Amino acid sequence: MTTKVSAQNIYKIFGPNPEKVFKLLDKGLTKDEILRKTGHTLGVIDASFDVEEGEIFVIMGLSGSGKSTLIRCVNRLIEPTRGKMFIDGEDILKVDNKQLRHIRRKKIGMVFQRFALFPHRTIIRNVEYGLEVQGIPVDERHRRSMEALELVGLADYAESYPHNLSGGMQQRVGLARALANDPDILLMDEAFSALDPLIRKEMQDELLDLQSKMKKTILFITHDLDEALKIGDRIAVMKDGVIVQIGTPEDILTNPANDYVSEFVQDVDRSKVLSASNIMKKPEVIFTKDGPHVALRKMKEMGLSSIFVVDKQRELRGLVTVDSLINNRKNLEKKDLNELIQTDIPTTSPDTPVRDLFGVAAEARYPIAVVDERHHLLGIVARVNILAAMSGEEVS
Amino acid sequence: MNLYDMTFRIPVGQAFSTLVELLDKRLESVFDFITYFLNTAVKGLEDALQMIPIPVMIILLVLLAWRISGRGVAVFTLVGFILIAGMDLWVETMQTLSLVFISAIITLGVGIPLGIWASRSDLLDKLLRPVLDFMQTLPAFVYLIPAILFFHIGRVPGVISTVIFAMPPAIRLTNLGIRQVPADVVEAAHAFGSTDNQLLVKVQLPMALPTIMAGINQTIMLSLSMVVIASMVGAPGLGKEVLYGVTQLDIATGFEGGLAVVLVAMFLDRVTESLGKGNQDNKNNQ
Ligand SMILES: Nc1ncnc2c1ncn2[C@@H]1O[C@H](COP(=O)(O)OP(=O)(O)OP(=O)(O)O)[C@@H](O)[C@H]1O
Ligand SMILES: [Mg+2]
Fold first, then answer.
1. What is the DSSP pairing of strand A234-239 with strand A56-61?
2. Burial level of B13, CB count in 10 A (0-12/13-18/19+)?
3. Which of A148, A151, A145 is nearest to A128 (CA)?
C-alpha cells in the first residue's frame, strides 16, 4: 500500500506573531491560556497522520477542534505555520503557486459543507469548473462532466441552476464537481452535515457505494460519531487542535485513548460498529475423542448447561446439552458422544455486525458459535455479551 | 483678551489656492491636452447624435427600451421623447446625453477597476474610504473653480466635475459586490486551482454583477443630477435651460428644461436597472 497523504507535525496558529506562541507552547500553556495572553488562536497543534491509497480517513471532533483548519492544510487553502504535508511524497508546502495550482487541479478534489456551488452557473457548468480552469476543450470537459453527473444520478438536471435543486441534490453536484477532474484524493469537510438525517444516510451509502467502485483516497470530516464509524476505515479524533487518537472504528470504541474519546463514544449506537468478534468470549469445549462422562464432568465443574464439541483441528461439530447426557446415563444407553451432538445450532461469522445477531440471540436457547470460513470455532456470543456490549461495558 | 482677537490661523485655503496655481502652471500642457481630447469627444458625440433624424432616434430609443426593459418602459420612452421634441428641447437633450454618456464612460472606466483593486487590497480600501467621502460631500462648486482654471470654460470642466461626483458609487459598489461573494464559493474556486484572474472573471465579477450594475445605475443618475452645475461652467444642454429659467425668473423655460431632465433620467434609470436584473441569470461564457 502506498501513502497518498502524509501530514507531519502540522501546526496552524492564527495571529500576527505565531513564532512567539511556540515558546509558550513549549512551556506547556493550554490553548485557552495562549488565546487570553497573546490573542493567538491555536488551530492545529502538532498533527501527524498518514492516509493510505484507497482509504477513507475520518477526522472527527467537536466544533472548533481544528478539523476544517487541518483539512485545509492538505491543499493549502490554509497555510500551515509549521510542518510538512506530503501529497504522493511531495511536500506541498514547498511548491510554488503554479505547482500548487497544478496539484489542486489534478490531484485533489474538495466538497464543502455548505455546497459552495457557483450560483450563476448551470449545474453542468458548475461540474465543469475544475476542467475549465485547466483549459480543457469544451467538448471534452462537457463529456467528462456529464459522466460525473451521471455517477451521482443528476444528468437530467445539467441545465438547471443550483437554487432549483434540493440540498441533497446540490451536494451531489458538489461531489460531481469534485469527481469531474478525476482526482486521487477527495477532501470532504462536513460534506453531509447540512443535510437532513434521511438524505444524509442516503448520501453516506452513496459515497460508500461510489468508493467501492472508484477507490479514491478520502479525507472526511465530521463531528458525528455515527457517521465517522460508518464510513471511516480509520478515524482521527481531534480535541483543541490536537489529534488525541487515530485508529479503526473498533479501536476507538473499544480502546478509547482518554476520557475525551470515551465520552465522545459513549452515546454511539455500538451495534452498528461492533462485530461478533469484538464481543465473543473464549468458549469451553470438549473434543470428539472425549466420552460422555468427561463431558458431563466438565460441565458440572463449569456450571454449564451446554457445551460445544470440536474435533482435533478445533472444527465445530456441534453442541451437547447436560439434559441429553443425563438422559443417556439414566437409560443406560451408553451411546457414543457423537450420537448425542446437536448439529443444528446457530453460528455466525466473526465480522457479522452485532445488530444482526439480535434476532438470532433472541431465538436461540444456546450461545451463538462464532466460526471462521473453515468452520473452526473462534468464540461464542451469549445474549448477556450482546447486552453488555450495547451498554458500553468492558467487552474483552 | 478674547478668543476672536487671536491672530492664530491655519491658512488651509491659501495653501490649496497656491497648490492649484502651481499645478495650473506646471501641468498646463497636460490639462490642455485633456481639455482638447474631452471636448472633441463630447462635441463629436453631440454632432453625431444630432445627425440622426429625430423620428429615427426616437424609434431607436424605444426599441432599446423595449428590448431591455419591456413594453411599459418602451411606451414611456415613446411618449417622453415626443414630449421633449415637442418642447423644442431636442438639441439640448442630445447635448446632455452626450455629456452624461462620456462622463459615465470615464467614471466607470476608472471606477470599476479601482473598485476591483480595492476589493483585493484592504489597504487601498481603507485609503479610498475618506477620499470617496470627500468626493461625495464636498460641494461641487468648490472644485468647479479649479476645474475652470485647469480646463477653461466649456464642456470639459462639466465632465470633470461630473466624473468626480459620480465616481464614488461605482468604486464602492464594485468593491462591495466582490467582497460580498461568499467566502466558501471563493474557497471552492481556489480549491479547484483557479488563478486570481480566473477567480475574478469566472466567479467574482459575475456574482457581483447585480451590485456593480446598481453602481452603474447610480453613477448615471448622479451624472444627470450634475447637468445644471455643468451648465454653470459653460457646458451646453438642458442645464442651460434650467439655469436660464432660474436667473431670468422664467418659470416656463425653467420648468420645461427640468421636465426634460426628469424624463431622460427616468429613461436611463429604468433601462440600466433592467440591464442589471437581466444579467443576473445570463450565462457567462469564458
Ligand atoms: N481565520 C481564522 N482566524 C482566526 N482563528 C481561526 C480562523 N479559522 C479558524 N480559527 C479558529 O481555529 C479553531 C479551529 O477552527 P476550525 O474551523 O478548524 O474548527 P472545526 O473543527 O472545523 O469546527 P466546526 O466543527 O465548527 O467546523 C477555532 O478556535 C477557530 O475559532
Ligand atoms: Mg469546520
1. parallel
2. exposed
3. A145
**H helix count then E strand count, chain B:** 14, 0
Q: Is residue B9 part of a domain?
A: no
How many other C-beta atoms lie within 10 A of the C-beta of residue A121? 21
CATH number at B142 reads: 1.10.3720.10
Interatomic CA distance for residues B93 and B149, integer angstroms = 27
Atom of ligand 1 nearest to the CA of A15: 4
In a domain, B26, yes or no: no
What is the reported pLDDT for A393? Answer: 58
Whether the model clears a pTM of 0.80, i.e. scores above it, the answer is: no
Averaged pLDDT of chain A: 89
B160: containing domain: 37-285
Are the beta carbons of A50 and A3 closer than 8 angstroms?
yes
Task: Check residue B4 and give its pLDDT.
Answer: 65
pLDDT(B244) > 80:
yes
Whether residue B13 is contained in a domain is answered as no
In-domain check, residue B30 = no
C-alpha cell at B203: 466567479
Q: Do B283 and A121 touch (CB under 8 A)?
A: yes
CA-wise closest residue to A309 among A332, A325, A328? A325
ipTM, two decimals: 0.80
Compare all CA atoms of chain A with the CA of B183 and give the residue at the minimum distance.
A116
Query: What H or E segment, with its residue span, contains residue A244?
Result: strand A242-247
List ligand 1's pocket residues with C-beta within 6 A: A 14, 41, 43, 61, 63-69, 223
Contacts of B208 (CB under 8 A, 6+ apart): B174, B177, B178, B180, B181
pLDDT digits (tens, 9 = 90+) for B31-63: 899 999 999 999 999 999 999 999 999 999 999
| DSSP symbols for A15-77 | SS-HHHHHHHHHTT--HHHHHHHH--EEEEEEEEEEEETT-EEEEEE-TTSSHHHHHHHHTTS
